[in-house]
Amino acid sequence: MRKGWPPSSRTGHRSSVGSRARCQHCFHTPLFSSFSLAFRSIPDMNANLFALFESRFPADRTACCIETHDGLYYSWDDLDRATAKLANLLASLHLPEGARVAVQVEKSPEALFLYLATLRAGYVYLPLNTAYQEAEIDYFVGNAEPSVVVCSSKNFGWVSKVAFRHGVNHVFTLDDDRSGSLLSRAAGKPDAFETVARQDDDLAAILYTSGTTGRSKGAMLTHRNLASNAQTLHEFWGWRSDDVLLHMLPIFHVHGLFVASHGALLAGAKMIWAPRLDMAQVLKFLPRCTVMMGVPTYYVRMLQEPRFDDDTCRRMRLFVSGSAPLLLETFDAFRERTGHTILERYGMSETVMLVSNPYDAALGERIGGTVGMPLPGVSVRVVDGEGQPCTPGEIGNVEVKGPNVFKGYWRMPEKTREEFTEDGWFKTGDVGRFGGAIASQAGERAVPDNYLTIVGRSKDLIISGGYNVYPKEIESFIDEMPGVAESAVIGVPHADFGEAVVAVVVRKPGADIDEAALIGTLKGRIANFKVPKRVHVVDELPRNTMGKVQKNVLREQFAVL
Ligand code: MLC
Ligand code: AMP
């Protein structure tokens, strides 16, 4: 078996949640008895999330922690030593307190170690989608002012220019074949490191989420946010040390970086690590796995593979879906094909996970079309336009509170204030209801009052293949193009991605707009998943009496791609 970097070795319950309860205005699931003990802040205990992971490493550190799709094995010792070397490298740079480490690299175990080393050294991790191009990276680096930027060698030319322009002193490269200046520099560093002490409220990561105004906002997540959520999910989803997670998600968003990786790390469980969703690898590795997580597109594609069946899933105990709505037809077809009921959950970059269908059947069934019940310790309420609580079955705005809710938007106090109510609830921008009924082919079924269903969004947001696209951002790029008078960007149903981005463009008098040329120009400027799949040219946009563009009319008119 080949060695990883810098490997020293090769290796070849159910939860105890109480009954549901309802407070006056919101639903919450009571804390686990064990969780509440573990979670209460213990004075003098290092609140650094890495310290929590360290405390859960398996006794046998030669056991396999990560097996890669191409046959590398990394033990827990390897993880410890690699993160120590990288943390020593970061420490040797004498970065200021709270320094940000911005990272745009392909997925690899080393990229995960860099995240963990950043935590370990007490700094703040800032992951960036690999699809982002120069204009996008320029904004993030300018806004976050990181002290360190790590990028792929192929992008070093332009990323380093952007970084140096913004005064970043340290730019390293890291590639997915264990090469790059980051690892060369870290290789000579000691392989032991005492995890830096952090407080609960210290920042661990900043995750940029696009904004309805077109400007991305950095959601500041603390060690407490991440640790509390990881511990809650550990209990709620019944993680076990003998679990094997098939990890195929990207590691620059909440789903792949936190929900999936933290789950395995906290359980001391092994991960089988693949760079992306690939059906050949699902067929090869899933039979050895017990847990898998994906956005709905993953399940749609698995069902399209005729060789994927119950035998492929023979060791599986849990399939989790999230980041976008899972269609009831996918939920039903998956159960029919495999005998497994996908567990759908709901979360956000600002809050990590909020609501989940139960793992433990004693708590209830997993109901397709719903996202389940608030996680223990998380409070969720649905309110009307005046902020008054909705009754079960009534649709309203979803608001949340809990130890998982972020600290605010990076250097945007105004925006932060706007997104919280006066009594401290975070406004998710999602629209939903507790209880009510779900319509399926088999007819209507009643939903228990503590189950949440997301029915839409009050924010103008498209979720395509699990990635968020804010129309405003795309419109501002299109509006700058020659010949364009104005534009409206909408999401339309898409069999693979759930929603697809479509642009409706009004041309200036006498101008000619070519769909392919417009798409081609956008491809050179913004992340590929944000680029409209179609561009429709119209004479004018439909508006209501207030002059607001009626996107619902456009969504109907251009529903078919
Ligand atoms: C790729 N493409 C997409 C796309 N991904 N288009 C729209 N939406 C997407 N999500 C386009 C590319 O631009 C390219 O177009 C073509 O599809 C093929 O690209 P690819 O890279 O080969 O695609 P593929 O590998 O098939 O990726 C699709 C995918 C991927 C669904 C597997 O997008 C993915 O892994 N999504 C997961 C996103 C995720 O992790 N979300 C979690 C966010 S956290 P062209 O024209 O260039 O050929 C969050 C909070 C929470 O939301 O609750 O979890
Ligand atoms: P992000 O900003 O990338 O973290 O995306 C968060 C958004 O994804 C939420 O506000 C929801 O709109 C959406 N989302 C996440 N999980 C689900 C789900 N299971 N069903 C519907 N929408 C979801």
UniProtKB/TrEMBL annotation:
Entry EC number(s): 6.2.1.-
Domain AMP-binding enzyme C-terminal residues, every copy: 473-548
Domain AMP-dependent synthetase/ligase residue range list: 56-410
SUPFAM superfamilies noted in UniProt: Acetyl-CoA synthetase-like (SSF56801)
GO MF term set: medium-chain fatty acid-CoA ligase activity
InterPro entries: AMP-bd_C, AMP-bd_C_sf, AMP-binding_CS, AMP-dep_synth/lig_dom, ANL_N_sf
Protein name per its UniProtKB record: Acyl-CoA synthetase
Organism: Cupriavidus necator (strain ATCC 17699 / DSM 428 / KCTC 22496 / NCIMB 10442 / H16 / Stanier 337) (Ralstonia eutropha)
